[in-house]
Amino acid sequence: MKTLKLLTFLTVNLLIGLPWNQGVIAQQGVIEIKQELSPDPLVISGNSLARVKRDCGLIPSQPNQIIVVKEPIPYLRLTLEGEEKATLLVDGPGGRFCMLPDGNQPEMTGFWSPGEYKVYVGNLSKGKYVYRVHLSRFKNSPNPQP
Fold it and tell me: What is the tens place of the pLDDT at every residue in 10-44?
């Protein structure tokens, strides 16, 4: 029952938002992707409550996004566009990876195996932050600006 409600909620939000903001999915939850990504880049926006101290700064207690990769993807780039000193923690089939702010946007690139990837958007400072996650199959495609 919860899954049906979530799918209905996500579908309605996606359909309402498409005419105004092509390519942006304003939702949190589970995203399933295959080798063909449409649109590319796929942009997921949301809010993150950074409050649990971990080895990747302050992160939320639950993942902001869960990305389910259905088939091997030879190259996928996940880039975080966040406020202040945003951090990115990705826990997936290949291990746990932390990207700290170093003057650039936190980013994870390369081969993605099938499986579930839990994405935590955090910060070095406590608080609530707005973020955008960009997923692209291309190495040099620019992220759309807000």
Answer: 444 444 443 334 344 445 679 999 888 889 999 99
84-113 residues labelled b (16+ CB within 10 A) or e (exposed): ebbbbbbbbeeeeebbebeeebbebeeebe
Answer whether 40's CB lies under 8 Å from 141's CB. Answer: yes
- The Cα 99–Cα 88 span in angstroms is 5
For the chain, which domains are there? 30-136 (2.60.120.380)
User: Could you tell me how far CA 31 lies from the centroid of its own chain?
Assistant: 9
Banded model confidence at residue 101, pLDDT cuts 50, 70, 90: confident
Which residues, other chains included, contact 103 with Cβ-Cβ below 8 Å and sequence gap of 6+?
none
Amino acid identity for residue 25 in this structure: I
Structure tokens at 127: 């608080």
The dihedral over CA atoms of 134, 30, 117, 42, expressed in degrees to the nearest 10, equals: -20
| Distance, C-alpha 44 to centroid of its chain | 6
- The pLDDT score that the predictor gives to residue 146 is 46
- Over residues 111-140, the pLDDT tens digits come to 999 999 999 999 999 999 999 999 999 987
